[in-house]
Amino acid sequence: MSTVTSTSGQKPEIEFPDGPPPTELVIKDLVVGDGAEAVPGGNVEVHYVGVEFDTGEEFDSSWARNESIEFPLRGLIQGWQDGIPGMKVGGRRQLTIPPEQAYGPAGGGHRLSGKTLIFVIDLLGTR
Predict the structure, then answer these.
(1) Where is this region: Disordered (predicted)?
(2) pLDDT digit string, tens, across residues 85-121
């Protein structure tokens, strides 16, 4: 499994994982929050970084834009819809998402199709 350095409130650094990618969603709480809980279909405000499992290459980061983002869970990839509910504000969670719950199989038209993805998400708010 990959390791994450830094603490909540700072951009996480995700170290390259060992071994084969998981075939199912892996949810790992790095910091357990004590605020309101995210619910399925709710809106969340997050800071996040996403890297490819195979290469460790960062493909997206709200930290790089220096601004958090808010959106409804129902509009996101399945791995986020399944992996964020239950998380509490103030928490940091790592999601390792297989292609079937991310952007689909290789050749699916998205540049991340066929890839297992790792996200580290800081939950800042929920409504």
Answers:
(1) 1-23
(2) 999 999 999 999 999 999 999 998 999 999 999 999 9
DSSP 88: B
DSSP for residue 27: E
d(CA 127, CA 109): 32
> Do the strands 117-126 and 43-52 form a parallel or antiparallel pair, or are they unpaired?
antiparallel
**Number of residues written out for the chain:** 127
Q: How far is CA 98 from CA 4, 24, 29, 32, in A?
A: 19, 6, 18, 23
- pLDDT tens digits for 26-71? 999 999 999 999 999 999 999 999 999 999 899 999 999 999 999 9
The angle formed by the CA atoms of residues 92, 94 and 96, to the nearest 5 degrees, is: 165
Q: Bin 112: left if φ > 0, else alpha if -120 < ψ < 50, else beta.
A: alpha
Q: What is the pTM (predicted TM-score) of this model?
A: 0.92
- The candidate with the shortest Cα–Cα distance to 55, out of 7, 112, 104, 102, is 112
Angle at 53 between CA 73 and CA 92, to 5 degrees: 45
